[in-house]
Design brief:
By secondary structure, this protein is mostly beta strands. It contains 3 helices and 39 strands. It is 6% helix and 23% strand. β3 and β4 form a beta hairpin. The longest helix has 24 residues. The termini are far apart.
């Protein structure tokens, strides 16, 4: 019994626990919570799945309005597109993604959440509409126009939106069918292949897919006779000085017209107030010479490119602002003169003129020269002066035949090294620029005879410069502070201008210029001259005006060929007696110095014609001046002379100037 009670006490708690647990397991389960997420997260059209696309397109999704939009490329077929969709987790969508749809009108996509709630998205896909609206070609085909022997292609000028065609003489212009090709997805009105009356200009309207429009004016004309073309020229210039009798059938009598073999070969109008060159000029196919210089010509028609027999064009001194690219078709041209106009550029096609020998572009408004100029392999003369050039193209060195180059009065700061390749260059005029140095390659110009570098900023010359065959060298108004010794090697030099620099002395290298005939050293700071100046055996003119000389070396007296000696505006108190040995001296200017006396030896200068002794401190002049039988001009004013020898007063002179207080003996 006791055992039984103990068992009951032991198992009783266990039974109670089992009962309680059993009771808990019999309660109702908690309900499952389902997702309400139903967003359309992305809407894409992948190029890999849509043949009409070249790139993927991602649509824009507005979660507020539930509107999906995308603009597709021009030409996309929206009737069969396969979208790729991304939606919320546990949601479904209808229609399904990856399934082709017709989006020519809005399509609704329903996204259903797990809990059964829905969002409806409206998808609007549109293809961008083309804005291109141009006429690509305009033709009159033989098969559509019975009056034509050959098909005719019209010329389209996109800039002015004009279309021009020329049909043969005798063509009926009142009923012609053009074949018109427009840009893709554009329409034209009147329509292609619809007969039109082209006896007057016809307007065509091109409408793009997006509705925008542009209008073209079609001008169809018939070929003209040469006489009719000249009459068109005459009528285009009503204010000109032309006095043609246009009723006359003999055009050879019309001023400025040259006729050979029954055809017009030349037109020449100078100072005739010509203002227009009409497109009818094209009907003078045998024209070889066209001169319209010093007139008022404002434009050149592109039809000039059809005059392929032209050899000479002179449009110098007009009002041209541009030259048409068609000028490049005139491959027979040997001379093209466009100077003194208002050109700010020239077309690259000028490089096609491979027979051109002379090209005049001076005194315009050019800021650059196209590289194609280097293709003018026959060019001998190039005028680029008086423009606004800051540089020359390297290709200028390819002008192997070039003999004369004019680049003065620009804003050049340097010359290209390639200029040294101009093996036939004999003249280079680069004055009035901003050059501070010359390329070493200039020393390669083995035929250079004339070099003008006046009015630059040069202070030195390159090594090797002295090997050049230069005959005339101009270096005035530069920045030389010392005599450029390289010049001393110029044994062929005859004329040298170093005026208006800051040169302080003349070194012995001066004597190396054995051929020198003229040297101008005006307005420097020269205070001393090396005795080697006496080696200049061929010197005829020595100009030392406005320097700082207080003496002149006696070796000047060795210049046996000297004819003109300018020593005025210095500080000379005396001159060496050797100077009076210059038997060929014709002019001697000693004015504006500090001379106190003049040697009686002056009477031995038998060829003297002009003698200037004014503005010194002379108190007398020697009577031997009266021996100068060839003297024409004598100036002795502004001195302290009170009496003049009668031998001088009795001379027959063209001009004799003295102070009023100086009386004749």
């Amino acid at each position: 019994m006791k055992i039984t009670n103990r068992l009951i006490k032991f198992f009783a708690p266990i039974f109670i626990l089992v009962f309680l647990l059993s009771s808990c397991s019999e309660k109702d389960p908690e309900p499952e919570i389902k997702s309400n997420e139903k967003q359309l997260l992305s809407f894409k059209l992948l190029a890999a799945e849509n043949n009409g696309l070249t790139g993927d397109v991602t649509a824009s999704i507005d979660d507020g309005t539930k509107v999906v939009t995308a603009e597709l490329p021009i030409g996309t077929d929206v009737t069969s597109l396969i979208p790729t969709l991304e939606i919320s987790a546990k949601a479904t969508v209808s229609p399904l993604g990856k399934v082709g749809q017709d989006f020519s009108s809005p399509v609704e996509y329903t996204v259903t959440a797990e809990d059964g709630s829905v969002f409806v998205y409206t998808v609007n896909l549109t293809a961008k509409k083309a804005s291109d609206r141009s006429i690509v070609s305009f033709k009159f085909y033989v098969e559509d126009n019975s009056g034509l022997a050959d098909s005719v292609v019209a010329t389209i000028d996109e800039e002015t939106k004009t279309i021009m065609a020329t049909l043969p003489l005798g063509t009926d212009l009142t009923s012609l069918k053009p074949t018109i090709v427009t840009s893709e997805r554009a329409a034209v009105s009147p329509a292609s292949k619809v007969a039109q009356d082209f006896s007057a200009k016809v307007e065509y309207t091109v409408t793009a897919e997006d509705g925008s429009e542009v209008k073209y004016l079609v001008d169809v004309t018939k070929e003209l006779t040469e006489r009719e073309a000249l009459i068109a020229f005459y009528n285009a210039n009503p204010d000109s000085k032309l006095t043609w009798d246009i009723k006359s059938m003999d055009i050879s009598k019309w001023a400025g017209v040259t006729v050979e073999g029954g055809t017009v070969v030349g037109l020449s109008f100078v100072n005739d107030d010509i203002s227009a060159l009409p497109r009818e000029i094209r009907y003078l196919p045998n024209l070889r010479k066209l001169y319209i210089n010093n007139n008022k010509l404002a434009a050149v028609p592109k039809e000039i490119g059809e005059l392929t027999n032209l050899e000479n064009i002179i449009f110098f001194g007009n009002e041209l602002t541009a030259i048409p690219a068609e000028i490049g078709s005139l491959t027979k041209l040997t001379n093209l003169s466009l100077g003194a106009n208002n050109l700010d550029s020239i077309p690259a096609e000028i490089g096609n003129l491979v027979n051109l020998k002379e090209l005049g572009l001076g005194n315009n408004k050019l800021t650059f020269i196209p590289a194609e100029i280097g293709k003018l392999v026959s060019l001998e003369v190039l005028q680029l002066n008086g423009n606004s050039l800051t540089a020359l193209p390297d290709e200028i060195g390819d002008l192997s035949a070039l003999a004369r180059l004019y680049i003065y009065s620009n804003s050049l700061v340097e010359l290209p090294a390639e200029i040294g390749n101009l093996s036939n260059l004999s003249l280079l005029n680069a004055n009035s620029n901003q050059l501070t140095s010359l390329p070493a390659e200039i020393s390669k110009l083995s035929k250079l005879y004339t070099l003008d570098l006046n009015k630059n900023e040069l202070s030195s010359l390159p090594t090797g410069f002295g090997s050049l065959p230069i005959i005339t060298l101009k270096l005035n108004s530069n920045a030389f502070t010392s005599f450029p010794v390289a010049i001393g090697g110029l044994t062929a030099l005859r004329d040298l201008d170093l005026s208006y620099n800051e040169i302080a002395s003349l070194p012995k290298e001066l004597g190396g210029m054995s051929s020198l005939e003229t040297i101008d050293l005006t307005s420097n700071k020269i205070a001393s001259i090396a005795p080697e100046i006496g080696d200049l055996a061929n010197l005829e003119v020595l100009d030392l005006v406005d320097n700082a000389l207080v003496t002149v070396p006696k070796e000047v007296g060795e210049l046996s060929k000297l004819e003109k000696l300018y020593l005025n505006k210095n500080s000379l108190e005396t001159i060496p007696d050797e100077l009076y040995d210059l038997s060929n001296l014709v002019l001697l200017n000693l004015s504006e110095n500090a001379l106190k006396s003049v040697s009686v030896e002056v009477g031995g200068l038998s060829d003297m014609e002009y003698l200037f002794l004014n503005d010194n401190v002379l108190t007398s002049v020697p009577k031997e001046l009266g021996n100068l039988a060839k003297l024409k001009y004598l100036a002795i004013e502004n001195n302290s002379i009170t009496t003049v020898p009668k031998e001088i007063c009795e001379m027959t002179l063209d001009s004799f100037t003295k102070d009023d207080g100086a009386v004749c003996e």
